[in-house]
Amino acid sequence: MANLKEIRGKIGSVKNTQKITRAMEMVAASKLRRTQQRMEATRPYADKIRTAVGHLYQANPEYRHPYLIERESVKRVGYIVVSTDRGLCGGLNTNTFRKLVRDIGDWNAKDVEVDLCLIGAKAVQFFRSIDVNVVATAQNLGEDPQVADLLGAVKLMLDAYTDGGIDRLFLLHNVYQNTMSQVPEVKTLIPVEAPDADELPQHWDYIYEPDAVDLLDGVLMRYIESQVYRGAVENVACEMASKMVAMKAATDNAGKMIDTLETAANKARQAAITQEISEIVGGAAAVAE
Amino acid sequence: MATINVEIVSAEGHIFSGEANMIFAPARGGDVGIAPRHAPMLADLRPGELRVDVVDGEEQFFYVTGGLLEVQPHLVTVLADTALRGEQLDEEVARIAQDAAEAAVSAAGDKQSLEHARLQLVEAAARYRAVQKLKGKRG
After folding, report:
1. Which residues of chain A register pLDDT less than 50?
2. Does domain B4-86 match CATH 2.60.15.10?
3. Does the structure's ipTM exceed the value 0.85?
4. I need a labelling partner for A89 at 20 to 30 A (CA). Which of A61, A132, B44, B52 fits?
5. If you ran DSSP here, which 8-state letter would residue A67 be given?
6. Is B132 left (phi over 0), alpha (psi -120 to 50) or beta?
7. Which residue of B has its CA nearest to A46?
8. Contact assignment for A52 to B68 by CB distance below 8 Å
9. Number of CB pairs < 8 Å for A and B?
10. CB contact under 8 A, B27 and A209
11. Which of residues 48-87 of A touch B (CB under 8 A)?
């Protein structure tokens, strides 16, 4: 049986850990509320522009932007991967990376190579140890990611698409469903996908104001920006939710551990007392004889 | 009478949605009025005021700093960079912003900052005009 002092020391250190995890849980909970609001604020714009660009795909314009044309042979694809900057957020990043690694395997099986654009320090750390082609990274964006910080890395991928370096561009980030569940999802950024159900006439085109070429460049740039930005913001909300849940589990576990340790400590204390009494009784008996 | 569904969103959130008889928007080349069953159109917006003639309601007034207008026969979507409801506009703040922008234009040294300052000024001036117009209508 471990001695009493040792167990008491252990209880103390577990209690300290519990204090820390509880504090982290509360911090994550308050940040979650803020990041959730931010996420909800970006959703309408990102959704609407996706629909608008989807309409654009269905139109029969006089000028077709490269982003709207699906290339027939796909030799290389690009992924923009959004991860968190910090750890201690449960299986969030692990799930994302597992999905990505599986996707990369699928593409490689089809003789298609994969270029990665990594957002978030955790992705950079993870993919450093794996043999993949990382083209661009953006790290340490904080809890309120700014579009300007993302643009550089995203621009590289867009340029690669325009030059023919990659034939498709995907965006991978966690989708916030509720506090308990966040699911990594892959969306196609380029070429633009048609929206699901929409009843639009077969042959039509927009009236452009000013001309189509300038306008479409601007529209599609805005579209990509808003999607990536939305991904980054949503991922932060996911991070906070996941962190809150993970830290709550850690706090609960620490509580359980303290209970077991306390039982052990009580047993050790009682054993020590019993031993002492039996020694005294034994001693007294020896003297009486 | 036919109506048209209007959705206004900005990068910061959802601003307005509802049925309207007509909507007036500040397109790059001049103001455009969109009635129901308008032909599909995509237009770039400049800073200025946006009016929505709401069905069964008062005319709504917004200020946008630029963005995009998408028109489908039964749906108008305004994707604004920043949008403010008319009542959120503050005359004093708008005037200060305009003064600051004017000062920035005259102080700007290199070409890039001058360009930036000019943009700011255009935006500030449009905002100020929008406030005054709104005030005139109220008063």
Report:
1. none
2. yes
3. no
4. A132
5. G
6. alpha
7. B11
8. yes
9. 66
10. yes
11. 48-49, 51-52, 55-56, 59
